[in-house]
Amino acid sequence: MTKIKAVIFDCDGLLIDTETPWYLALKEIYESYQLDLPLEVYAQCIGSNFDGYDPYFSLKKQAQELVNIDETKNKARTIHKRLMKEQQLRPGVVEYLQDAKRLGLKVALASSSNREWIEEQLKAFQILSFFDSIHTGDTVERVKPFPDLYEAALRSLHVKKEEAVVFEDSLNGLKAANNAGIPCVVIPNEVTAHLPFKTHTHKLASMGDMPLESLLQKLS
């Protein structure tokens, strides 16, 4: 039986539901052009970057009129910032982070977003100090679903892949954990709840559903 020595968390959508505000912001912009942005389409870029699917490029292509992508991104950021004022940490997040420290676990964060954005969110919600290492999309060659971020986290924590557990909310994040060979607990948010998760080790509706210590005992 392998002893778990480290936990690695995604950020956007898992600790803080930033994904729903982003989707709603883009949906609002699409609707201003009398266009729809189906959730299952937008979900392609959740947890990754826009290399596979770019909602801004798609808008410009569908609108068949002049769409300034930079201006559209600024508008989306403004709407997102307004919607984020209503957001809090997801249920059970603080308890999981506190329990991880109490249990003597190493704690890392691995996100496809850039470091400036991640640190801004962690500071705003006063949880930055919980993390022993932080790995972001601007520090690796490939973001999720590639394993680079999780492999970097393992190296920084000096643990083997079987000694860690990843917590994710997106398909791209789950694929990244799978590709790194690390067990993954999926905790979807409102936007990702409908996605076809299949290769996870365990699934929870929220961290509030099961204490971290009980979950780790179950996984061990």
Automatic annotation (TrEMBL):
<dbReference type="InterPro" id="IPR041492">
    <property type="entry name" value="HAD_2"/>
</dbReference>
<dbReference type="Pfam" id="PF13419">
    <property type="entry name" value="HAD_2"/>
</dbReference>
<comment type="similarity">
    <text>Belongs to the HAD-like hydrolase superfamily. CbbY/CbbZ/Gph/YieH family.</text>
</comment>
<dbReference type="InterPro" id="IPR023198">
    <property type="entry name" value="PGP-like_dom2"/>
</dbReference>
<dbReference type="InterPro" id="IPR023214">
    <property type="entry name" value="HAD_sf"/>
</dbReference>
<keyword id="KW-0479">Metal-binding</keyword>
<protein>
    <submittedName>
        <fullName>HAD-superfamily hydrolase, subfamily IA, variant 3</fullName>
    </submittedName>
</protein>
<dbReference type="GO" id="GO:0016787">
    <property type="term" value="F:hydrolase activity"/>
</dbReference>
<dbReference type="InterPro" id="IPR036412">
    <property type="entry name" value="HAD-like_sf"/>
</dbReference>
<dbReference type="InterPro" id="IPR006439">
    <property type="entry name" value="HAD-SF_hydro_IA"/>
</dbReference>
<keyword id="KW-0378">Hydrolase</keyword>
<dbReference type="GO" id="GO:0046872">
    <property type="term" value="F:metal ion binding"/>
</dbReference>
